[in-house]
Design a protein that fits this description.
- By secondary structure, this protein is mainly α.
- The chain is 66% helix and 0% strand.
């Protein structure tokens, strides 16, 4: 007897069908990063600097504060008179330049990141409150922002550090307090637009409290912009910290900072150029790496972007 042909229901999946899994978030971010040359270079530079700062006690060839008069102003190893013991030479007190650059990365990254975090907390909070409530609160907070913008950051920092004295904690607080206005203005502008959207109006109509609307609906929608501007602000803060240390109002000896190493070498530029050149190169490379990474993040996170730059 002939068998009836078998039929397949719509719920059955053919054995030959292959189900494709969506890549994880980490895989997608890695792909986006590799698509951008500047983003990849920036990420590698930042990663290198972070590992250098963390592993400084292990990879530093010498104690950065050890004074050795017998090795004063020794040139780099590839110049006549140099030694493989001090790859980048020594300073006017015989201290190893490479070791001081390695340890200086700790202070620069610590101050840069901590100051930006502090500025972000203040600025985002002010921007959320001003944009959401509007009216008198908005006017008062924006006038406060305008007053901070009227004073140059470097001048404000010089005055505060002169009064309270330079230290790592004081420097972080000063740089954080002087840079929060940029976050406040950015977040306020975005909140003014977001709070008019339907999901915010719906939350208000069902009686959701204001602080919950701010934390659950407004804050997540401004995080991407905050990440972009904070990444770029780290580079600016590192330069500002180095400038203050160069002027003698930043990190004080014996703590090593790139600005302090630059300051030590400014009197020897004509005869011992390596004292100031190599710390300057370290600052330049680090700042460029952070800018490249921030530029890539802007392209990825900004919805108005036309795609990742190649």
């Amino acid at each position: 007897m002939a068998q009836a042909p078998q039929t397949t229901t719509s719920n059955e999946i053919p054995k030959t069908a292959v189900t494709r899994k969506r890549p994880s978030a980490l895989v997608r971010w890695v792909r986006l990063l590799l698509m951008s040359k500047t983003g990849t270079v920036g990420f590698l530079i930042v990663l290198l600097m972070v590992f250098t700062a963390i592993l400084a006690p292990l990879i530093s060839p010498h104690d950065p504060t050890e004074i050795n008069p017998a090795n004063m102003l020794q040139p780099p190893m590839w110049i006549e008179g140099g030694s493989s013991e001090h790859l980048l030479g020594t300073d006017n007190l015989g201290r190893d330049i490479l070791s001081r650059i390695i340890y200086g990365s700790q202070v620069s990254l610590l101050v840069g990141i901590a100051a930006v975090v502090l500025a972000g907390i203040i600025g985002v909070s002010v921007g959320l409150i001003a944009g959401f409530y509007g009216g008198f609160i908005d006017n008062a907070l924006m006038r406060l922002v305008d007053s901070f913008l009227a004073i140059p950051n470097i001048l404000f920092a010089l005055v505060i550090l002169s009064v309270f004295g330079p230290s790592v904690i004081t420097l972080i607080i000063v740089l954080g307090v002087t840079n929060w206005v940029n976050y406040a203005r950015l977040v306020r502008g975005e909140v003014l637009s977001i709070k008019e959207r339907e999901f915010v109006k719906a939350a208000r109509s069902i009686g959701v409290k204001n602080h919950k609307i701010i934390l659950r609906h407004l804050l997540p929608n401004v995080v991407s912009s905050f990440i972009v501007i904070s990444t770029l602000s780290v580079a600016t803060t590192i330069i500002l910290e180095a400038s203050l240390s160069f002027l003698g109002l930043g990190i004080q000896p014996p703590t090593v900072s790139w600005g302090g190493v630059l300051s030590d070498g400014r009197d020897y530029l004509a005869t011992s150029w390596w004292l100031a050149t190599f710390p300057g190169v370290a600052i330049t490379i680090t700042v460029l790496g952070i800018i490249f990474l921030g530029d890539w993040l802007r392209d990825v996170l900004d919805p108005r972007s036309q795609g990742v730059r190649k």
